[in-house]
């Protein structure tokens, strides 16, 4: 597995066009591989995420089973004379994960649930729109994802029982686009979670980091990364 980081030059028209469309970004990411990556559901997959920490610091992160070649992105949305990308062998880091370790994490995800307005209606997938429910979505999945979000000491909770975890939600985005051959637009909500976690099951967490968490993985959701807490 490989982890790649590429800085996008947001001053370029092509960059703004790419950032406005998860479909175009997904196509650009997949064009980074000479061989077609394994289909979803069969082993590790290609995951990507856009981090926009400031107007001048926008990065594309990719986790992939094969090493990507981002030459086309450098030429189209980077700095062709001076810009490059960084690709790291992800395997050694994944192998060193152990129960009890604590890490800061970032995850962009598509928190959804199934609901219906009346008993006689079929259920449909619906986005969680409130921060409390979006946090609840992640907390419900942590055990099966190999980690637990660290709880704050009671004296550090600003709102008792509603501020228990070292977790924030930001960068809420509503995306709408039309897929080729489909008249009805695709709509989804993505949010970014920043927080701290403790590893509970290293093998399961490795799968989460390489297979993604939640839905809409083809549109920049599902990629979790860890850094030293």
- State mean pLDDT (0 to 100 scale): 91
Shape label: globular
Unreliable segments (pLDDT under 50, ≥5 consecutive)? none
Main β sheet profile: 5 strands, antiparallel
Helix % is: 10-25%
How would you classify the helix and strand content by structural class?
Answer: alpha+beta
Order of helices and strands: EHHEEHEHEEEHEEEHE
Strand content: 25-35%
Discrete helix count: 6
How many strand units?
11
Cα(first) to Cα(last) distance is 23 Å
Report the radius of gyration as a whole number of Å. 18 Å
How would you describe this protein?
- With 229 residues, the protein is an alpha+beta fold.
- The chain is 21% helix and 33% strand.
- The chain has six helices and eleven strands.
- It has helices at 13-19, 22-30, 71-77, 91-95, 131-141, 202-211, and strands at residues 2-7, 47-54, 57-64, 85-89, 102-109, 112-115, 124-127, 147-149, 167-177, 186-199, 224-228.
- The strands form three sheets. Strands 5, 8, 9, 10 and 11 form a five-stranded antiparallel β-sheet that branches. A four-stranded antiparallel β-sheet has the order 2-3-1-4. A two-stranded antiparallel sheet has the order 6-7.
- A hairpin with a 2-residue loop joins strand 2 and strand 3 (57-64).
- The model has no long low-confidence stretch (mean pLDDT 91).
Write the layout of secondary structure elements.
Layout: E1 2-7, H1 13-19, H2 22-30, E2 47-54, E3 57-64, H3 71-77, E4 85-89, H4 91-95, E5 102-109, E6 112-115, E7 124-127, H5 131-141, E8 147-149, E9 167-177, E10 186-199, H6 202-211, E11 224-228
Antiparallel strand pairs: 1-3, 1-4, 2-3, 5-10, 5-11, 6-7, 8-10, 9-10
């Amino acid at each position: 597995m490989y982890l790649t980081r590429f800085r996008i030059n947001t001053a370029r028209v092509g960059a703004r066009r790419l950032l406005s469309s998860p479909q175009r970004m997904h196509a650009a990411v997949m064009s980074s591989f000479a061989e077609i990556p394994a289909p979803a559901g069969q082993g590790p997959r290609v995951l990507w995420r856009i981090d926009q920490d400031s107007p001048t610091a926008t990065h594309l992160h990719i986790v992939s089973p094969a090493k990507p070649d981002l030459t086309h992105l450098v030429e189209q949305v980077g700095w062709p004379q001076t810009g490059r990308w960084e690709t790291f062998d992800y395997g050694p880091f994944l192998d060193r994960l152990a129960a009890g370790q604590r890490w800061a994490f970032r995850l962009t995800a598509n928190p959804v649930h199934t609901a219906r307005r009346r008993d006689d209606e079929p259920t449909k997938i619906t986005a969680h729109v409130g921060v409390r429910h979006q946090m609840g979505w992640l907390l419900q999945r942590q055990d099966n994802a190999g980690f637990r979000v660290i709880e704050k000491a009671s004296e550090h909770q600003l709102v008792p029982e509603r501020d228990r975890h070292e977790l924030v939600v930001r960068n809420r985005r509503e995306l709408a686009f039309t897929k080729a051959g489909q008249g009805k637009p695709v709509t989804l909500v993505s949010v970014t979670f920043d927080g701290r976690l403790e590893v509970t099951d290293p093998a399961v967490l490795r799968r989460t980091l390489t297979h993604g968490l939640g839905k809409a993985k083809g549109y920049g959701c599902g990629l979790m990364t860890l850094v030293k807490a």
